Request: fold
Amino acid sequence: MHLLSNQKNLMDRFPIYEPMTVFTDILITIFGIWFGRIIYMWFTVRLMEVHFHFANYFFLVAFTASIGALFHVFYPEYETIRDFLWKLTMLGMIFSVFAMLMGTVYYLLPFETVQWVKWIIVATMVPFIVWFYVDHDLINAVKLYIPSTILVIMVMAYGWLGKGDIGAAWVLSGLLVTLFGASFTVTKIGFHQHFNHNDIFHIIQIAGMYLIYRGTMLLSNYGMK
Reply:
C-alpha cells in the first residue's frame, strides 16, 4: 500500500523539479548566445582579443546556464545525474571566469605582456578545476568568482576613472549588478518557493549581462582605439 502511494505521488507531481529556475536558466542561455554572437562578429571586424575573449565569456555563461537548466529539471532522487550535471556547471563557471580574465588582461596590458601573464591565469585555473571536481560545493565557486570579479571591477574602475573609458564604466556597472544578484544565491533569500534565490539571481544576472555586453562593444585592446 505504501509503495502504491509513493508511485501515485511520483505520477502526480510536476515533471520538472524547479520550473522557474529552468526557465530563467534558459533565458540566460538565449541572451548569452545572442550577446556572444554580436561581440564575436565585432571581433571579426576589429580583430581585438578583448572582444574574442568576452564573446567566449558569454558563450560559456550560456553553456553553464543550459547545463544548469538540465540540473534543475531532475528531482533530488536522481542523484547521479544531478551530480554529473553540477560538475559540468562548475566547469563552465571556471572557464567563463577564465575568459573574463583573459579579456580583461588584453584590455589592461600590452600584447607582449599578456603572452606570459595568460599562463599565470591558466596555472591558477588548473587547481580550481581539480578542486571543484573533488568538492563541487557552490561556496567553492563563490571563492573563485568573487575575487576574480573584484579584480575585473578594479581594472574597469581604473579604465573609467583613470582613462575616461565609457566602455569600462558599462562593464563595471554590469559586474556590480551581477555581484548584487549573486548575493541572493549566497544568502538564499527568495520571494516564493517557485521564485527562489536562484531565480532572483538569474533575472538580475541578465540585466548585468546586458550592461557588460554594452561595455564590451566599446572596449579596445591596450594601446588601441
